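We examine the record.

___
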Amino acid sequence: MDVVDISRWQFGITTVYHFILVPLTIGLAPMLAIMQTVWYKTGNEAWLRATKFFGKLFLINFALGVATGIVQEFQFGMNWSEYSRFVADVFGAPLALEGLIAFFAESTFIGLWIFGWGRLPKKIHLACIWMVAFGVNASAYFIIAANSFMQHPVGVEWDNERGRPAMNNIIALLTNNTTLAAFPHVVAGALLTASTFVAAIGIWWMARTTWRARQLELKADGAKAELEDTKSPTLAEATPAQLNADAKEMWRPVTRFALWLVIVAGIGTILTGDLQAQIMFKQQPMKMAAAESLCKTEHNASFSVLSIGRQNNCDHIDHVIAIPGMLSFMADHKFNTEIKGVQELQKEYEQKFAGNPAHKGQNYAPNLFVTYWSFRAMITWALGSVIIALGGLWATRKNRVVTSRRFGFLALLLIPTPFLANASGWIFTEMGRQPWIVAPNWADNLDPLRTSMLVQQGVSNNSAGVVLGSLIVFTLLYGALGVVWFALQRRYIREGPAAPGVEHAALEKAEGDGKLSFAY
């Protein structure tokens, strides 16, 4: 591999690592705000316990997300300095807004939220978590606005003196139709991830508490019982009646809230994804063709569920199972729409960029294997959330609670699926844009010959060995952080929330001493 390949691998690996944490942060913050709002309005301690329990998991995720996210910006200077120079006058504004408005806001208010339990007035403390929810979503918006410029450049003019695009309309940049479609899709995917996370943990805890209650009852009757050795405050000293009450009064309502949110977020993800597909058809037709490995132009183009063959060789691809007309329908909701194939689009790009020597012999098609299967992986992994939602709603119907340990364990096993769906979607989005690091835009009075940039034009002048060395270091470091993240999440999920009455007592004590201290 040359320096371009290694640089791409490094950026891809660090981005996927980081983005595993991002959806949970974006989605869980507003869920925590809703949970705390319910407690504030009703005084029901179950929602306070749920808020502090999932808040602890949120803080672990947030801290590691910040640590991995910082490296993302370092990448621009380390391996992609030419790209950074090219987009410097454009990216400065949204990235500055992300830091000054979004990140500073979420960091400040998350500190007040952590240290302010019982010290700040309840209404002010509640406002802090809502500000955190606003901050994490605003941060996502500004990052997506920057990324959307790479997908569809707008709001710029060519600066002859500097030899790069210069922003002349920040409103156009922030209201790019690519941004307006991508942002709700990202938020819907994040809510799907967070709600699946909360619902799966709730299902597991419901099954765990009802199982322990049954085992304690068997033990009391002198029968053989299977009791796990647990350090959980909600399990260790609780009676069967208390355990059953906890399953019904805390875990069931919290889980039902998350399960219904899975349904809403899932529908939102589908609708916003459909909007993105229509925009992609107009702005990046090569990505649309690559999603299907469609080599030749077709009317009534099918969407294949399965294809075999040499995926990157158009002469050796066989679509085995296909849905007739579905790809055309995805493009503009018409089954007979013409979808241009990879081969024809390649010829069109060759003609358009024939006068630029940097494009001589350029293959304008992305890696068809990656785009084809990442698109299908995105859809397939999302089915894990569907299983949890439908199974959980059925198991908790008519005021019932989950009693099956098998279903509880299955729910835990399915937690990674929405994370993988989000990662697969971003792999498709970014790999499908290749070989462009900034894709050409033939509309909006821009010169695509100058405002676009190929990947190989954006790398730094580093040796392959230097980049490979940093790639190995980052991969090992991120792997270690991944182990830490998993270990901490596993520990506190197993420990569970505080026992009933403990959180109220802690708040009363905090109000009495008036000192700010770490809440967890």
Q: What stands out?
A: The beta strands are 156-159, 164-167, 298-299, 303-309, 317-323, 338-339, 436-438, 453-454. The first strand starts at residue 156 and ends at 159. Residues 230 and 236 are 6 Å apart (CA to CA). The chain is about 70% helix and 5% strand.
